[in-house]
Amino acid sequence: MNAAGDVILIIDRDFRIVWPNPSLTELTGYAEAEAVGKDPRVLLRSGLRDPEFYREVSATILRGESWRGEMTNRRKDGRLDLEGVLITPVKDDKGVVEYLVSLRRDLTAQREMEAHPRHAQKMEVVGQLWPALRVVLMSGYVEETMQESARRNRWRFLQKPFRAGRPDPRAGGSDERDGERRCARALSDRSNLSGGDESRSSASQQRT
Hints:
Blueprint: E1 7-12, E2 17-20, H1 23-28, H2 32-35, H3 40-43, H4 51-62, E3 67-74, E4 80-91, E5 97-106, H5 108-115, H6 117-159, H7 175-207
Antiparallel strand pairs: 1-2, 1-5, 3-4, 4-5
C-alpha cells in the first residue's frame, strides 16, 4: 500500500487516523507524524461543507455501509483540492465497525480539463495527427537541408578542376566569377578542339 498513488488512510471508529501511506504527504502536505491521531474531518476540512454533511457521512459509515463521493479538502499550504473519496468500514467478528479504510484520489487536474473541453479536444487531435505532422516537418527539413547543401557545393564542384591555377584572393575579384570565366573558357576550348578535329578529318578525306 506504500507504493499506491492514491492516498490510503486507516482510521479507527473514533475517526482518528491510525496509519497513512506516503501519498498523504504528496497530496496534502502533512507528514505522517502530523496526521496520526488527527481527525481527517478536522485536519482537511475546507469550510465549504456544513457540519451536517460530515454527520451524514459518519452515520452512513458507522451503519456498516460504504460512502463514495467528492470532497473539497484544504492542504497544509491552504490550497483547495477536489478529491474523489471512498470510505469502507471494516467490521470485527461481531459485525461491529472496527476500522475505516479511506481511499482518496486528487480530481483537481481532471476537473480543470473537463472545464476546458475545447482545449482537451485540440490536444487530442494534435496527439492523433502528430505522427503525420512529424513526417511532413521532417521531409521539409531534409529538403531544405539538401537545397542548402547543393547551393554551397555548386561552385566547389565547378572550381575543382581549376584549384591549381586559382588566383590569389588578395588580388581582388570573386571566386564565383573566376569559376564562371574558367568554365566558359574550358567550354570554348573544347568547342575549338572539336572543330579542329572535324577540319582535319575533312581535309584528310579530300586528300584521300
